[in-house]
Design brief:
This protein has helices at residues 2-15, 32-51, 67-70, 77-82, 104-113, 144-160, 171-175, 195-206; strands at residues 23-24, 55-59, 121-124, 129-130, 165-169, 183-187. A four-stranded parallel sheet has the order 3-2-5-6. A two-stranded antiparallel ribbon has the order 1-4. Helix 7 links the parallel strand 5 (165-169) and strand 6. Helix 1 packs antiparallel against helix 6 (144-160). The longest helix is centred in the N-terminal third of the chain and has 20 residues, at 32-51. By secondary structure, it is an alpha/beta fold. The chain has one domain (2-206): Uracil-DNA glycosylase-like domain (Uracil-DNA Glycosylase, subunit E, 3-Layer(aba) Sandwich), CATH 3.40.470.10.
Length: 207
């Protein structure tokens, strides 16, 4: 019960975080979209409590086709609808079945994770969606200030789970783990031609 209450408190804190005008806090407010993101994240974290992950897969930031619309890192609506890890378990999508969002990185990550039973917890070092000021359906790199803010939420999340090792997907999240107090390593992010290195790197960690 304590961990479930901690998850509620964690999501409450996420949902009240003030962000800049070129960032979207998809958990904030009472829109249908924000309610879906909060519910999905709660379901996901509660499910992961039962999974008892020993690893955390840490990305950089939500993309507008994935976490930015589902509330779950490296997870698009198509993954929620089709992957057995999520399917028919109460997760919700904002779009109609014929127009579900799909994200290349999410598709690659879950195509690999489907081969393992020791599924890692998945999170982003910056948990909100950074985008161009005039175009919300875009992605930008988080600033150093945003990455530092993200460390606060990463630390809170790690207090809920018994994680032994953090796997940084890319140099940005890796740069914030030095001196953080957890064992960590780096593997190539799957985007922009990094799929094979990602697959091989994750295989070494999860084998």
């Amino acid at each position: 019960m304590k961990k479930l209450n901690s998850i509620d408190l964690f999501i409450d804190k996420l949902s009240t975080q003030v962000v800049s005008n070129n960032t979207t806090n998809m958990y904030f407010g009472n829109t249908i979209a924000s309610q879906i993101c909060r519910k999905n994240l709660k379901l996901y974290l509660n499910k992961m409590i039962d999974v008892k992950p020993s690893h955390l897969l840490l990305g950089e930031a939500p993309g507008y086709k994935g976490c930015g619309i589902t509330g779950i890192a490296f997870t698009s609506e198509r993954i929620l609808n089709e992957n057995t890890f999520y399917k028919n378990q109460g997760f919700r999508c904002l779009n109609k079945p014929s127009k579900l969002s799909s994200e290349i990185s999410a598709t690659i990550v879950w195509s690999v994770l489907d081969n393992y039973t020791n599924i890692p917890l998945i999170w982003n070092i910056f948990p909100f969606h950074p985008h161009d000021t005039s175009k919300k359906k875009s992605n930008r790199t988080p600033t150093e200030t945003e990455l530092e803010l993200g460390k606060v939420y990463l630390n809170l999340l790690l207090k809920i789970f018994n994680i032994d090792n953090i796997i940084a997907l890319g140099r940005k999240p890796e740069s914030k783990l030095k001196g953080f107090g957890y064992h960590y390593g780096y593997i190539r992010h799957p985007a922009n031609g990094g799929k094979n290195k990602f697959v091989n790197g994750l295989k070494e960690v999860l084998k």
